[in-house]
Amino acid sequence: MMVKTALLFFLTAIAEIVGCFLPWLWLKKGVTIWVLIPAALSLMAFVWLLTLHPAASGRVYAAYGGVYVMTALLWLRVVDGVRLSHWDWLGALVAFCGMLIIVAGWGKA
């Protein structure tokens, strides 16, 4: 369950980041306004993906935050081309471990 949950969270984070990155491109880089259509679709997918988890919404959001941090830093490295520091990697690891702890407790509270 832990691997499935983590993968679903990563997919969810990609959907959210793409949904936010495309309008950013439109506002900051002057790309066509038509990017708002796939951005909206991506954000709809993001919301739908969050509903696929069996836990209460607050727990899902809290756990998702840990994966989002890691995914956003990977996006920073791959898409933006920014070299990550050891502090970035450590922070991502701590956030990801937080997600693992929260998910491990699902159904036990």
Automatic annotation (TrEMBL):
<keyword id="KW-1133">Transmembrane helix</keyword>
<comment type="similarity">
    <text>Belongs to the UPF0060 family.</text>
</comment>
<dbReference type="InterPro" id="IPR037185">
    <property type="entry name" value="EmrE-like"/>
</dbReference>
<feature type="transmembrane region" description="Helical">
    <location>
        <begin position="33"/>
        <end position="53"/>
    </location>
</feature>
<protein>
    <submittedName>
        <fullName>YnfA family protein</fullName>
    </submittedName>
</protein>
<dbReference type="Pfam" id="PF02694">
    <property type="entry name" value="UPF0060"/>
</dbReference>
<keyword id="KW-0812">Transmembrane</keyword>
<feature type="transmembrane region" description="Helical">
    <location>
        <begin position="89"/>
        <end position="107"/>
    </location>
</feature>
<feature type="transmembrane region" description="Helical">
    <location>
        <begin position="7"/>
        <end position="27"/>
    </location>
</feature>
<dbReference type="InterPro" id="IPR003844">
    <property type="entry name" value="UPF0060"/>
</dbReference>
<feature type="transmembrane region" description="Helical">
    <location>
        <begin position="60"/>
        <end position="77"/>
    </location>
</feature>
<dbReference type="GO" id="GO:0005886">
    <property type="term" value="C:plasma membrane"/>
</dbReference>
<keyword id="KW-1003">Cell membrane</keyword>
<keyword id="KW-0472">Membrane</keyword>
